Amino acid sequence: MTAVELLHGVDHLPIVKTLLLCDEAATGRFARALAALPGLRLAYIELQGDLGAGKTTLVRHLLRALGVKGRIKSPTYAVVEPYELPGLNVWHFDFYRFSDPREWLDAGFRDIFASPGLKLAEWPENTAGCTPLADLVIQLEVQDDETRQATLTAQTDLGAGLLRQLEASAPSEAKP
């Protein structure tokens, strides 16, 4: 693909933002900034990173910021934990135990992904080719000093809008 084709909208490069989460409090501030974005309510977000990178911690902070009360469980064994909030359904998936992407189809998740609401997926690579294109991918990496680097990649117009809104509204220490 040539630069001219890129400029004329035949294809576009994903929008990428990187931020550093110095501690869990910064992760919480980042989650609250995400939760405040109206478009988030219709997004599919993939969370990527090694074990211990902070994927579930980020989801817990995000769910709290969205108004989830009570215990927030990791869906590692249940595969999905649904949350019903006023005017919003949220599904937190953990595909860590999937060994074949077809398990996603067998579980009947196509209907959930076709419905309105926020979908958050850990270990999405285990469902490769089955899930739709994520609006936003959040890659978490533990740095040598135990901080987390979060790389946010927009893959759709909705994701690009979320990143623009986040950049405009995020606290300065968690600004992408």
Account of the 3D structure:
- The two termini are 29 Å apart.
- The longest helix has 13 residues, at 157-169.
- Helix content is 30%, strand content 25%.
- α2 crosses α3.
- A hairpin with a 5-residue loop joins β6 and β7.
- It has six helices and seven strands.
- Residues 1-10 and 172-176 have low confidence and may be disordered.
- It has a seven-stranded mixed sheet.
- With 176 residues, the chain is of the alpha/beta class.
- The chain is globular and about 40 Å long.
**Could you tell me the number of beta strands?**
7
Task: Please write the string of helix (H) and strand (E) elements.
Answer: HEHEHEEHHEEEH
Q: Report the β-strand fraction as a percent range.
A: 25-35%
How would you state the average pLDDT, rounded? Answer: 87
Helix run count: 6
Spatial sequence of strands, sheet with the most strands: 1-7-6-2-5-4-3
- Output the structural class: alpha/beta
Distance from first to last alpha carbon: 29 Å
Shape descriptor: globular
- Rg, alpha carbons: 16 Å
The main β sheet shows up as: 7 strands, mixed
Percent range of helical residues: 25-40%
Low-confidence stretches: 1-10, 172-176
